[in-house]
Design the sequence.
């Protein structure tokens, strides 16, 4: 299949594997920013193809994982209202709030629907004029254009029974926050290819200059990741900083100007809480004044007390300080059916990725003991 | 409080036990298993049920336990598919095939089935007629008679057009003993054809996805394929039809029941390009997607190639492939060597199949 099988070619993977071993002379720590990349790394067992000197740290790029608890709780409260049709991308339905998740709201009678495109919500809004259709606008810069388009069309068509609960986060401020952290260990980044497809590479050049760090804009197929890792190591070994673009088949340096204009029309940047990390200045989108009538938080003012699971160390996980299996609750109290924190929910979350695809690396739940090195 | 989280009393999100039924309880994945293990099994505890096979093999009174005669396979299955008519089949075909296949993979010769219809007020009689006609054809193809039934009608809105429950019985020839607890290290795992066709066909109709080719459900009777396979190879350890929960669900059950590891090779999985593309688009794993006319067989290594050749001669097994081996460790886990040579765990589906965000 075009654009799939070519990027999973085992012979090409071997070549990258050998090339990486050839150029690696000492330990390096590389962070892949995006959850989609974490998913591929764990799903295809990429880490074990790398020499022991190379450590991959899974970054905070899973939108499901970093959506703050108070917004999840707001979503649950809004979705439970009888006049509301609450629409969301599928992953969000299982994220635990302080009490329950969207599946539980649905089971209790709430009208919660999974959509593939935010524009589907506008269809519902036209179809049910006496209900309010609320879309949970979650994601990084990648999903922002489509979400912005839904709001833009709603305003154009005067669809007053449509609103969005906005929880948009931005990658570059999160990378800055990681690099500013006193215990930062990241030496190079694999940039999130699809975010750059929308926003371009300029912001990353500034980051690379400011922090003197290599950034390789990287795609999502196994060979993309291997090549991105190879290019990062080459820059590290050669002592170079800057931005290289592994994902040139999709990413252009200037990004997608039409998407950027639409985003700028509908959203403005503002401070945002990240689950497990805390507040990062200028790290999120909120609706601009012209579109604020579509803000679900304004339409449904809700006063909430939120409480995070005490056992969850998602902050350490999302900042790359700890690996999921270093959490005492991993695969014990915390599993995809009983997530204590968001990284265990989405298949892009580091904990879920480790649970689903990487459990054979250590003792799994129950009492199964696995011989270390069995798969070497 | 569920035992698994009793050790962490600080946890404020015990999502472990939903207070109400959620859709994931019907996904065939881990939530379904939780329901079975914590509610149904304790309530009806008996040795037959506890085997958790696709069918119960029972003996009616009057036959000695070890006599080898008079063994009956018995199974039941409910069908709630939406839409009722989909490319490659409809709820009627599915209802017959689902039940006869569950009997066949137990090594039984299906003979009689029953059908109970729950009809929603307002259903077009013409639709019901089409469903019944396709059940008639499916019964004939499978060599079974529909010998008893029931009809109930509920008010509009209390059901979704038609729900059908079928039960079936078949005779189990003497000496036959297929079980998910039979797998042994060294055995080979064979799948009878492309995986994920049914689930993706249904999902693409529901979600309005269009591909260059029409994705068709694989719903089909496995009765004849199973007969041919068992005639050719009496040493088959286990047969299962990987419906809800997909091949991953079936193999995880097998790994647990046989206390073995299953090791798959991703490059050997037969998957249609359109199904693969749809799974990529929707963020699904084809191993989790439902099949309705496929089986998974576990066979001793020395018989694998011969059985594979026999299967490929059969219309239902043309694309059969050896997809993995049974190993000793890591026990109770299914792992897979990926396209590029890495290794990962193939987990059971945990809740409802959820499309990923991006």
Sequence:
């Amino acid at each position: 299949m075009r654009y799939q099988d070519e990027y999973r070619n085992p012979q090409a993977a071997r070549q990258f594997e050998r090339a990486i071993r050839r150029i690696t002379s000492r330990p390096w720590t590389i962070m892949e920013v995006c959850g989609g990349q974490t998913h591929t790394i764990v799903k295809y067992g990429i880490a074990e193809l790398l020499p022991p000197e190379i450590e991959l740290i899974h970054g905070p790029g899973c939108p499901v994982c970093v959506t703050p608890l108070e917004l999840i709780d707001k979503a649950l409260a809004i979705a439970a209202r009888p006049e509301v049709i609450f629409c969301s991308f599928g992953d969000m339905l299982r994220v635990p709030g302080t009490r329950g998740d969207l599946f539980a709201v649905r089971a209790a009678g709430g009208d919660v629907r999974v959509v593939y495109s935010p524009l589907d919500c506008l269809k519902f809004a036209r179809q049910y004029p006496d209900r309010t259709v609320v879309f949970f606008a979650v994601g990084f810069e990648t999903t922002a254009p489509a979400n912005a388009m839904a709001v833009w069309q709603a305003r154009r068509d005067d669809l007053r029974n449509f609103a969005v609960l906005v929880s948009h986060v931005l990658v570059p401020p999160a990378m800055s926050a990681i690099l500013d952290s006193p215990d930062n260990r990241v030496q190079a980044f694999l940039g999130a290819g699809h975010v750059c497809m929308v926003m371009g590479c300029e912001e990353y050049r500034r980051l690379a200059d400011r922090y003197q760090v290599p950034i390789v804009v990287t795609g999502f197929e196994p060979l993309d990741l291997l090549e991105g890792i190879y290019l990062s190591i080459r820059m590290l070994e050669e002592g170079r900083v800057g931005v290289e673009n592994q994902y040139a088949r999709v990413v252009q340096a200037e990004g997608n100007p039409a998407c950027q204009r639409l985003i700028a029309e509908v959203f403005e940047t503002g401070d945002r809480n990240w689950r497990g990390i805390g507040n990062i200045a200028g790290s999120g989108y909120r609706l601009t004044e012209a579109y604020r009538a579509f803000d679900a938080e304004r339409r449904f003012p809700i006063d909430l007390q939120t409480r995070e699971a005490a056992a969850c160390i998602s902050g350490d996980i999302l900042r790359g300080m700890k690996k999921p299996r270093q959490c005492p609750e991993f695969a014990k109290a915390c599993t995809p059916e009983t997530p204590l924190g968001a990284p265990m929910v989405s298949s892009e979350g580091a904990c879920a990725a480790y649970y689903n695809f990487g459990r054979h690396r250590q003792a799994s739940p129950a009492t199964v003991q696995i011989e270390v090195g069995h798969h070497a | 409080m569920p035992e698994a989280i009793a050790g962490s009393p600080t946890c404020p999100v015990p999502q472990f036990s939903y207070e109400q039924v959620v859709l994931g309880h019907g996904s065939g994945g881990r939530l379904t298993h939780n329901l079975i293990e914590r509610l149904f099994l304790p309530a009806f505890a008996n040795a037959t049920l506890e085997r958790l096979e696709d069918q119960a093999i029972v003996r009616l009174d009057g036959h000695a336990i070890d006599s080898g005669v008079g063994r009956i396979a018995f199974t039941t299955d409910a069908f709630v598919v939406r839409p009722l008519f989909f490319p490659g089949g409809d709820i009627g075909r599915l209802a017959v095939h689902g039940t006869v296949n569950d009997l066949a993979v137990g090594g039984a010769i299906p003979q009689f089935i029953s059908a109970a219809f729950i009809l929603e007020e307002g259903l077009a009689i013409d639709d019901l007629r089409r469903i019944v006609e396709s059940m008639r054809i499916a019964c004939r193809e499978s060599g079974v008679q529909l010998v008893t039934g029931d009809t109930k009608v509920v008010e509009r809105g209390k059901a979704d057009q038609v729900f059908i429950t079928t039960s079936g019985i078949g005779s189990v020839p003497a000496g036959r003993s297929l079980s998910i607890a039979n797998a042994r290290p060294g055995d080979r795992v064979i799948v009878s054809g492309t995986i994920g066709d049914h689930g993706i066909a249904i999902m693409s109709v529901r979600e309005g996805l269009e591909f260059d080719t029409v994705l068709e459900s694989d719903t089909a009777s496995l009765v004849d394929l199973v007969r041919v396979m068992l005639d050719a190879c009496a040493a088959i350890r286990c047969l299962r039809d990987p419906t809800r929960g997909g091949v991953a669900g079936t193999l995880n059950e097998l790994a647990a029941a046989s206390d073995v590891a299953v090791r798959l090779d991703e490059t050997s999985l037969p998957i249609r390009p359109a199904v693969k593309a749809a799974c990529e688009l929707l963020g699904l794993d084809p191993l989790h997607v439902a099949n309705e006319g496929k089986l998974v067989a576990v066979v001793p290594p020395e018989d694998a190639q011969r059985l594979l050749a026999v299967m490929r001669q059969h219309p239902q097994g043309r694309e059969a492939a050896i997809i993995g081996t049974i190993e000793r460790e890591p026990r109770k886990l299914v792992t897979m060597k990926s396209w590029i040579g890495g290794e990962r765990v193939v987990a059971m589906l945990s809740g409802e199949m959820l499309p990923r965000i991006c």
Remarks:
- Residues 125-142 of chain B form the longest helix (18 residues).
